Amino acid sequence: MSGIRLSKLMAERGLCSRREADRLIEQGKVLVNGQVIDRLGSRFDPTVCIALAPEIQRERSRLVTVLLNKPPGVVSNQPEKGYQEAASLITRKNFQRLEGQMQGELTLDGHLLKPVQITQTDDRTLHLVLQEGRKRQIRRMCDLVGLKVHSLVRVRIGGVGLGDLSRGRWRYLDSSEVF
């Protein structure tokens, strides 16, 4: 089979997650070069034109995406008892409007990781750029080489940077910002 799975192409273009792409494909809500595709696993050349059905586009135009600078101790998803869920921070009160590298192959839990770029910015600070992240990857990588992580700050996700967004605050994503 040649080509790339449609769900992967959709995720790479920022249309949706792979899981959501599979759901939309099964429902016949994805068009490739104007043709409805409803078969999972369909593969295409990466240059194809991918569009969502008009009703999905209308539905999405009513949705907003926000960027949250999550503070330590706040859990992104499914918090255990006693932990605050990140979604609880998305309130009007917390809204903020904004007017020598090392590379190598690394495995974690048997998964080959994509290259990680590491730059030491001073004697106590590392700057890491990941192409994909796994659960607690940075902390576990540092532990493997005897480094203790005192603070970990995410400064961007894909092409979306935090900029001046204060910890615990959120803002709407601009239509040009894509993960």
Average pLDDT rating: 80
Uncertain spans:
98-104
How can the largest sheet be summarized? 3 strands, antiparallel
Class based on secondary structure composition and strand pairing:
alpha+beta
Gross geometry: globular
**Strand-residue fraction?**
25-35%
Number of E-state strands: 15
Helix count from the secondary structure assignment:
4
Question: Gist?
Answer:
Helix content is 18%, strand content 26%. With 179 residues, it is of the alpha+beta class.
Describe this structure in words.
This protein is of the alpha+beta class. It has 2 domains: 4-61, Roll (Structural Genomics Hypothetical 15.5 Kd Protein In mrcA-pckA Intergenic Region, Chain A); 66-172, no CATH class. It contains 4 helices and 15 strands. It has helices at 6-12, 18-26, 54-61, 137-144, and strands spanning 4-5, 30-32, 35-37, 43-44, 50-52, 66-68, 74-75, 84-85, 106-108, 111-113, 116-122, 125-130, 156-157, 160-161, 170-172. A 3-stranded antiparallel sheet has the order 3-2-5. A two-stranded antiparallel sheet has the order 1-4. Strand 11 (116-122) and strand 12 (125-130) form a beta hairpin. Helix 1 (6-12) crosses helix 2. 8% of the residues are buried. Mean pLDDT is 80; it is low at 98-104.
